[in-house]
TrEMBL record:
Pfam families: Pkinase. Residues 70-296 form the Protein kinase domain. It comes from Solanum tuberosum (Potato). PROSITE patterns: PROTEIN_KINASE_ATP, PROTEIN_KINASE_DOM. It catalyses: L-threonyl-[protein] + ATP = O-phospho-L-threonyl-[protein] + ADP + H(+); L-seryl-[protein] + ATP = O-phospho-L-seryl-[protein] + ADP + H(+). Its EC number is 2.7.11.1. It comes from the Eukaryota. Signal peptide: none annotated. Keywords: ATP-binding, Kinase, Membrane, Nucleotide-binding, Serine/threonine-protein kinase, Transferase, Transmembrane, Transmembrane helix. This is non-specific serine/threonine protein kinase.
Length: 296
């Protein structure tokens, strides 16, 4: 008699189950490891922390929290090169964050330039505190200056701050601006040319002391200047390398605006635009002097 033994189905099923479970577990472990590595790589690429000086730790999550995820209510202003947000760090430090978009090539230049000027101190300069960079985005972290720009003070809707701009204050603003520029050109080892001096880049603190903002990136901004910015520049600057004399010219234009209280350009009938500098160049100073003497 021939006896036929059936395979042990329970034993076979258990072996298959153990094999499948082991493979699945191995796959899960590998998936978790590679996912973690990929996410870590993305985090580092997305926004790599650049630490400029001991204790100056600024990472993306902290800046994001400080600005309430770059909420519109925290927006201080917007220009051709980026948007500025107000923020508060966990330790209570008030900051202003400039959020820029740039190419990968431009990113390297911005980071290197940021390294050189971070922490530079002068009473008439806005201090760059730190920087985060990565994936076509750059965040510049500045000290927060509480009041307004010179442009806002002169031509904004706040009558109270404009009333504080008496002649001694305007003289002090001119003097502070001159001292800040002198430090950039001669007082620091870097010999920095601002290249974009205008009322919007001169911030006023609570005592209306001037602080020059957005310095150190002249060569990176130079080719991207808007028509409005070029109104403060000498005509020959457009076609040649930046020099300190370019800042001196712009300083003169700002002084003219500050003393006269007149805007850099005024729309006229027929779609024409009248430029303040042209009026001076054409020796039409009498009208400006009368404008000042009338208390404007």
């Amino acid at each position: 008699m021939v006896t036929i033994y059936e395979p042990d189905q329970s034993h076979l099923s258990l072996g298959v189950l153990v094999g499948i479970s082991g493979s699945a577990l191995l796959f899960l472990i590998l998936f978790i490891v590679f996912s973690w590595m990929y996410q870590d790589k993305l985090r580092r690429e997305e926004l790599e922390l650049i630490e400029f000086y001991p204790g100056g730790l600024y990472n993306y999550q902290k800046i994001k929290a400080a600005t309430n995820n770059f909420h519109d209510g925290r927006r201080l202003g917007e220009g051709g090169f980026g948007t500025v947000y107000e923020g508060t760090l966990l330790d209570g430090t008030a900051i202003a964050v400039k959020k820029l978009s740039t190419t990968k090539e431009g990113m390297n230049e911005f980071v290197e330039k940021s390294r050189t000027i971070a922490g530079m101190k002068h009473p008439n300069l806005v201090t760059l505190m730190g920087c985060c960079a990565g994936k076509n985005q750059l965040l510049l972290v500045y000290e927060y200056i509480g009041t307004k720009s010179l442009e806002d003070a002169l031509f904004g809707s706040d009558e109270l701050i404009r009333a504080r701009l008496d002649w001694p204050t305007r003289y002090r603003i001119c003097l502070g601006l001159a001292e800040g520029l002198t430090f950039l050109h001669e007082g620091s080892k870097l010999e920095i040319i601002h290249g974009n001096i205008k009322p919007a880049n001169i911030l006023l603190d609570n005592d209306l002391n001037p602080k020059i903002y957005d310095f150190g990136f002249a060569k990176l901004y130079h080719k991207q200047k808007s028509e409005g910015t070029m109104s403060y520049s000498a005509p020959e600057v457009k076609d040649r390398a930046l020099e300190a004399s370019a800042d001196v010219y712009s300083f003169g234009v700002v002084m003219l605006i500050l003393v006269s209280g007149m805007k850099i350009k005024t729309p006229r009938a027929g779609g024409d635009t009248e430029y303040l500098v042209d009026e001076v160049s054409e020796t039409r100073l009498t009208a400006i002097v009368m404008y000042i003497n009338l208390g404007n």
